[in-house]
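Worked example 2:
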Amino acid sequence: MDTFAASDLSTSDQYPIHVGTWVNWSRGKVFGATLTVSRREADLLIAFTSFFIAYVSTCTWRIFCFILHRIYSSPGPQDAVYHQRQVILRNSSSPESAIQLLITLCRLNYLKLRCFRPLPAAVIAALCLILFTAAGGLSSLVSTAISGQVLLQGTRCGYIGDPSPWIDRNKYFKYISYQSEKTDNAANYAQQCYSDNTTSFLNCNRFVTERLATNIDLDAPCPFNASICRNDAGNLRLDTGFLDSNDHFGLNSPANQRIRWRHVLHCAPLQTAGYTTEVIAPNDSYTLYHYGAYGVGEEYRNYTYRASSLNVVYHNSDKKVTYANHLIESIRADVKNGTTYSAGSDFVPIDSLFRDDADTHVSFLSGNGVTYSEPSTDEWYRVAKEPSTVLWIGANQQTYLEAYLPLEPASPMGCADQYQFCNTGIEGDDGCGPLASLRDAVAGAAPLFNTTYAEFSNYEAESEPGSLLAYFGNVFFTFDITVESIISQLGGQGLLSHRTLNAAIQGPIASNQWQLDFIHLWEVSLASTQTAFIDTAVGPADETLRSLWTDYATSKANKLCNSQKIRSTAYGSFSLFGLLFIFILGILLILTSYLLQPVSKFLCEKKGYKTYAHLEWTTNAALQLQRLAQEEIGMGTWSKCLDTIPATRKGELLGSLDTNDPEHPVLRPVTQKTVATLDKVTSFGEIDTLNSQTSKTVSPSGASSKPLYPSSQTDRYPGFNARRP
């Protein structure tokens, strides 16, 4: 049953989904056996399962009735409650009908001790009803317990290249467009699905884990040399803790074949005193920030960042305050083998900003013409405490207003970025690599996965653990999912403060607004990471991007490609264990209910086992009780008296109901006619006609017959008056 089908493009789920059986390792090998079908088939299966459980409920009740009937069966003389209870147990088709009759029987005898005798059977019926009603409702858990998880079909599994703008500009801008779209989507997801304060209009049930948890420390120490941070405390440290490749990212695999991944971001506003140089030129003034150098040869720069002076941005007569936004730019310095990796870095940080166990990035925030409605003590926005007069120029007017301006042209934020990879196949801390920069974290963990960093970087890992590390780790190199990349893509719109920015006027901001901003950027990064694993498995939907895409070539990588889980409402996934348990147990109960009487009959006839109990069960059936009543008044020549349906001779009439006394109806015997005559009788009107005839007919005893309907109670039933109370 291993077939594949692409989802209906009319639905919101346009990913190719594996249809058939598979093992969801989040639930284990046995309980994780899963069946995925289309939504229509899933709805039919749920409905059929509920109907099946209802039918099993009826059969199970019949089993209880048989057992209780046998337990209560006694050959001695018994009162009416006994016989009525036995008849109820024999003929009730469902627990609810039995409850109604048994409770009524108790109520009729409520002043007598015998009223308690039907109660145990009523309680058992009630328990049976409750049990199977709950089972019917919980039957949907065979699907909902799996949380709608499905397996992707990784037909285009691979990674996207990073083309150089100097070699192929068309490919480069396709790449930029692709990454920008992914970042925008992640920002929307983070805003609506990671926030507790917004109403989501997006489908937040796409990933196996809706949101990745983070340990947030708002009072962290300085992540660098204490001299370069504005504060020794009150900084921000974000730590995912160890996240499971299966449970959190949906990479389906057994517990001992997974990766545990950890990401730590540690940020603090940086000092600017002693790290800046002001340059005043005839036509421009700017400030240089010295946190490291970049470039080589003639392109060497002994500064990190350049920002226009406040006088140029806010007070130059040639500048107008318009619909500006914050300007935020980020540069990074990657570490490899404990030193700055120049090929992957924008600058070489100074010693007080360098860490050999982390990648570093610095984000510069500039007002860029934005004014503030209120002062703020935030250490990154750096808003003045006293207002300034700002000229507002419109189409046909100009106005001078008081506003608060930034204290500095740009405000730097330094962050240390760390990663850690662990092999779940190795117990304890021995299975974890170092908490370090991305490249050193991969290199340190590579031996634990039976591979090397060289094999990782060249996509040449041959072992299954090595392929797992290469597949998982490559996501962080080929997708722009770091906070620094998010800042580069979103700019000022990535800040939470942007939501209260209008017409270049920034509304009130919190005293720790920078922490709120970076928590949001961190959440966008996590959402991007979740998306990246799905994008790796299915590839880009736009065919024009296929030229940038490289498919994984090894069989081990392709196996991982087909192991990506997501959640989908366009398909239904069922626990095979749950389905098999329901249907196998149900079939056994159904068979048991149908075999009880034949087995009882066999034991009675061959072994003489509980003959009376068997005969009582048989004769308490509705049609057998009818036979007994008819025989009691001498009507019918009966056969098949131990079968489901007893039979009379052809053409025999049976006693009918006498309703002359509506409060005490009884059966009345009738006079038999000849077979030839009876074959012609089709209605009671014809029977009345026969009664009026004077001709004699033969009764079963051979005596002269009486009218078909006797005229008195004594004639109707011998001994009738004696039995009247």
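Residues 1-12, 675-685, 687-725 have pLDDT under 50 and may be disordered. DSSP finds 20 helices and 29 strands in the chain.
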